[in-house]
């Protein structure tokens, strides 16, 4: 494949461009005026090694070295705690086993997270090696690498037509420009199925789900900078420090159409109430709120590889809630498959990600 067109300028498309650019002529087309405008600009920016199913965990593990070391690394210490109240013992035991957290005492939990409400929280668990992931830096590193290897990154280039001609793909954007390529990479996030349909191909069933976030103020003199990421049992809410304030998510997962997502007031209020039960400090002031779409395949595993019916159309979709933490390994696999190289990931993981599992 000597000319490759990537559709989508979120972390999926940008990381794919960085991997492919040393080996091919790469053009990335992003419909918005800036990169990472949708899901990739709205995340919680965490690297949680045990978050996701077995295939996601394999991608997380295979991405860790890149996150730690490439270009000086993008991770910084945070820690992860889970809290639960009485009556949720089974869910708590199951969650902490899955996420790899160790039980700690309530005294230990309160020393890590001073706003813990001892009247309501009866169980806590912790793991130290959960990290903040500098999403802006990761994207900039991939952009720099892609450009250094000659990739063309075009913003304001919404793809409106995808045609398979005799020997090439012809892609048309809203401004009437056309681009030709030997292969197409579909990294369109929530729009991955519509983009496949535009190319005359069958969708794989990518479903976007909205996830909201509120940034709340803390009382004067309270500095949260050293607090961990804290998760309510059953992923019922979570929070983490953010530049002197806290971001709190209701951990909502409401199905949505592909769109510029926004937070729903009632969902935010209910989520903040769940968070409020766990803490001693009342929520007094919301500084900002937003929402993004987490787009999942039916089995909640990424979709990476050649389309079932068209060997030169590649999926790089279904990143769900893991698009940043999996990006180094996912983009490497995508690149290996596009270039016809033997994947460095194990065969079981590659098969679990293969779009052909949906046929
Ligand atoms: C609230 C929230 C918290 C999250 N927290 C984390 C976390 O802590 N850690 C983690 O790893 N992940 C997290 N995620 C998930 C992560 O943000 C996503 O998995 C990731 O950003 C998806 O990247 P993407 O490139 O696939 O999609 P996007 O960033 O949405 O990019 C897709 C792009 O394709 C473009 N596009 C679509 N159609 C066209 C077209 N026709 N022509 C041109 N361009 C087109 C869109 O404009 C868009 O920019 C979170 C997500 C949310 C919403």
Structure at a glance:
This protein is α+β, with helices and mostly antiparallel strands. The protein has helices at 11-20, 54-69, 89-99, 106-112, 135-148, 192-198, 265-277, 327-338, 347-353; strands spanning 3-7, 25-29, 46-47, 75-77, 80-84, 102-104, 123-127, 131-133, 152-154, 159-164, 169-173, 178-181, 183-186, 207-216, 229-232, 238-242, 245-249, 254-255, 286-296, 303-306, 313-317.
Task: Give structural notes.
This protein is 27% helix and 28% strand. The chain is of the alpha+beta class and 359 residues long. The protein has 2 domains: 3-59 and 134-205 and 298-358, FAD/NAD(P)-binding domain (3-Layer(bba) Sandwich), CATH 3.50.50; 80-127 and 207-296, D-Amino Acid Oxidase, subunit A, domain 2 (D-Amino Acid Oxidase, Chain A, domain 2, 2-Layer Sandwich), CATH 3.30.9.10. The strands form 4 sheets. Strands 5, 6, 7, 14, 15, 16, 17, 18 and 19 form a 9-stranded mixed β-sheet that branches. Strands 9-2-1-13-21-20 form a 6-stranded mixed β-sheet, sandwiched between helices. Helix 2 packs across helix 8 (327-338). The longest helix has 16 residues, at 54-69. The model has no long low-confidence stretch (mean pLDDT 97).
